[in-house]
Amino acid sequence: MHKKIKVYTLSDGTKWTADELAEYLDVPRKAAASRLAQTSDADRVLKPFGLPRISRKIINDVKSRNYYDADGHWKRILNTSLGV
């Protein structure tokens, strides 16, 4: 028995499935399906996912405290998280 795949039509006329959007945005399928279910506005659906607010808060907190980091561990983590 095959499960029917739902195809969503966005405001710009493009058609997407949750799997296609998940691959395009590089996010889990559930996140893509949720976004498709919430709106059909192409700009909102295709907008890249950013860092969660908690991650930004943690990054700013770590940067502001001037941790001693002889091996550059935090610098590598922060640069990777920020995409630098």
Mean pLDDT figure? 81
Strand content: under 5%
Largest sheet: 2 strands, antiparallel
- Which term fits the overall shape? elongated
**Beta strand count:** 2
Number of domains: 2
The strand order across the widest sheet is: 1-2
Q: Report the C-alpha radius of gyration, rounded.
A: 18 Å
Cα distance, first to last residue? 47 Å
Tally of contiguous helical segments:
5
Low-pLDDT residue intervals, each spanning 5 or more residues: none
Helix content: 40-55%
Give the topology string: H per helix, E per strand.
Answer: EEHHHHH
What class, by secondary structure content?
Answer: mainly alpha
In a few lines, what is going on in this structure?
The chain is mainly α and 84 residues long. It has helices at residues 18-25, 29-38, 42-46, 53-65, 73-82, and strands spanning 8-9, 15-16.
Protein traits:
about 80 residues; two-stranded antiparallel sheet; about 5% strand; mainly alpha
Question: What do these coordinates show?
Answer:
- Strand 1 (8-9) and strand 2 form a beta hairpin.
- It contains 5 helices and 2 strands.
- The model has no long low-confidence stretch (mean pLDDT 81).
- It has helices spanning 18-25, 29-38, 42-46, 53-65, 73-82; strands at residues 8-9, 15-16.
- The protein is mostly helical and 84 residues long.
- Helix content is 55%, strand content 5%.
- A two-stranded antiparallel ribbon has the order 1-2.
- It folds into 2 domains: 8-46, no CATH class; 53-82, no CATH class.
- Helix 1 (18-25) packs across helix 2.
- The longest helix has 13 residues, at 53-65.
- It is elongated, with a radius of gyration of 18 Å.
